[in-house]
Amino acid sequence: MIFDLTGEQEMIQQMTRDFAERHLKPVAEELDRTKAFPFENLKKLAQLGLMGMNISVDYGGSDVGVIAYSLAITEIGKACAATGVTTSVTNMVAEVIQEFATEAIKKEHLPKICDGTYPAGSFALTEPSAGSDAASIRATAVKDGNGYRINGTKTMITSGEHSGITVVWAVTDKSARKGKGISAFVVEKGREGFHVGKNEEKLGQRASTTNELIFEECWVPDENLLGKEGDGFKIAMMELDGGRIGIGSLALGIGFAAIEYATEYVKNREQFGKPLSNFQAIQWMIADSYTELEAARFLILRAAYLKENGRKFTKEASMAKVFASEAARGVTIRSVQMLGGYGYTKDYPVERFLRDVIVTTLYEGTSEVQRMVIAREILRGG
Ligand SMILES: Cc1cc2nc3c(=O)[nH]c(=O)nc-3n(C[C@H](O)[C@H](O)[C@H](O)COP(=O)(O)OP(=O)(O)OC[C@H]3O[C@@H](n4cnc5c(N)ncnc54)[C@H](O)[C@@H]3O)c2cc1C
C-alpha cells in the first residue's frame, strides 16, 4: 500500500493551500458576517483549474483526479467553508453533466463551469416533503413537443440563485415503482418559468446561498435530459457518492482549521502560571483531535482512490463522509473548549468553525442516511 501523494497531487495541494491562505482566509470572517456570495474567490479558483477537477481537458477541465480534488477541497474548506461547499457542489454538477449529458450540452456548459463564466453549478434534488427520502420527490416533467415541461419546488439548493446551470430532478413516470420514474434535466439560468425563491438564513456557511427554486411550466428541450428517462434517481445516487468525498474533505478542512488555531492558542495562554499546553487534559484534547482527523483523512483518501481507479466506492464514500463530518464536529467543539469563554465569542474564529461544521453531518445525506447506506452495502455482501 502506497501512502505517498504523487508530485502533481502535492503540487495541487500546495498551490491551493497558498492561494487559500492568501485570498480566502483573510475574507472568510467578513463573508460570514455579510453573507456575501464569494464571486471573486470562485472566479479565481476557476482560473486555477479547481472548478472542473475531474472534467476532461477537451471540455476545459483540469482532469487531475479525485485525490487531488479531495486535497484541494480540504485546503479551501480550511480557509473558507462557504467557498469550499460551493466549489465542491460545482465540481459535482460538472461531473454529472460530463457523464450523462449529450455532446452538445457538454460542449456548451462545461467550459463555462470550468473557466468561471458560471459562478457556480447547482444540484436540485431536495423538496419540502422529500429530504432523506429523495425518491419521493413530487416535481414533475411532462413531455411537451420536443421537450419537457417542469413543475415543482426544490428547497435548500446550494448556490441556486447564482448558478449558470442547475441539474433538476423530476418525475416523468408517475406509474413507475418508487425511484424508477424519476429523470434528471439541466436547466439553464434565465429559462422562462424558472424562479428563485428565498435564500435561507443559516447558522453557518453563510456566504454560500441556499435557495428555494420554483419551476412553473418551465420548458426544456429533449437534449436537456441527462441519461435516459427513468434513470434520474440512479444518477443522483451515483453522483452523491462522489459528492460525499467532497463534503468529507470539506469537514476535514474545517476540523484542521479549528484544532490548529486552538493548539496555537493554548501554547500562548497562561493559567496557574503555565501555558495551557502544559496541562495533560489539554494535551489529550490535541492528541485525540489530530488522531481522529488523520483517521478521517485516510478514509477519505481511500474512497477517492477507489473512485479515481474506477472501482466501487459507495460504502467507502459514506464511511468517509460520516466519520469525517462527525470527527470534525467533535474536534471543533473541543477546540472551542480549549479557548474557554473566548472560544464562544466572535473575537476568535473557532465559533465560526463550529457553526460551519454542523451542516456537514446534514447535507448530501445526513449521518443517519450514511449509516443506512453502509449497512445496506455490508448486508448485501459488499
Ligand atoms: C445548507 C444546506 C445546503 C443544502 N444543499 C442542497 C443542495 O444543493 N441540493 C439538494 O438537493 N439538497 C440540499 N440540501 C438538502 C439536504 O440534502 C437535506 O436537508 C438532507 O438530505 C436532509 O433532508 P431533510 O432536511 O428533509 O431532513 P429529513 O429527511 O426530514 O430528516 C430529519 C432527521 O430525520 C432523520 N431520518 C430521516 N429518515 C430516517 C430514517 N429512515 N432512519 C433514521 N433517521 C432518519 C435524518 O437523518 C434527520 O436527522 C441542503 C441542506 C442544507 C442545510
Provide key terms for this protein.
four-stranded mixed β-sheet; about 375 residues; alpha+beta; four-stranded antiparallel β-sheet; Butyryl-CoA Dehydrogenase, subunit A, domain 2; globular; 10 helices; 3 domains; binds flavin-adenine dinucleotide; Butyryl-Coa Dehydrogenase, subunit A, domain 1; about 50% helix; Butyryl-CoA Dehydrogenase, subunit A, domain 3
Structural commentary:
- With 382 residues, the protein is of the alpha+beta class.
- The chain folds into 3 domains: 7-120, Butyryl-Coa Dehydrogenase, subunit A, domain 1 (Orthogonal Bundle); 122-232, Butyryl-CoA Dehydrogenase, subunit A, domain 2 (Beta Barrel), CATH 2.40.110; 234-379, Butyryl-CoA Dehydrogenase, subunit A, domain 3, CATH 1.20.140.
- 51% of the residues lie in helices and 16% in strands.
- It contains 10 helices and 10 strands.
- It has helices spanning 7-34, 39-47, 66-79, 81-100, 103-114, 232-268, 280-308, 314-338, 350-358, 367-379; strands at 120-124, 140-144, 147-158, 163-171, 182-188, 194-199, 210-221, 225-226, 270-271, 274-275.
- Strands 1-4-5-8 form a 4-stranded mixed β-sheet. Strands 2-3-7-6 form a 4-stranded antiparallel β-sheet, covered by helices on one side. It has a two-stranded antiparallel sheet with strand order 9-10.
- Helix 8 (314-338) runs antiparallel to helix 9 and helix 8 runs antiparallel to helix 10.
- The longest helix has 37 residues, at 232-268.
- The chain is globular.
- The relative contact order is 0.11.
- The mean pLDDT is 98.
- Bound molecules: flavin-adenine dinucleotide.
- Flavin-adenine dinucleotide binds at residues 89, 123-126, 131-132, 156-158, 202, 210, 359, 362-366, 368-369.
- The site of flavin-adenine dinucleotide has 20 residues, from strand 1, strand 3 and helix 10.
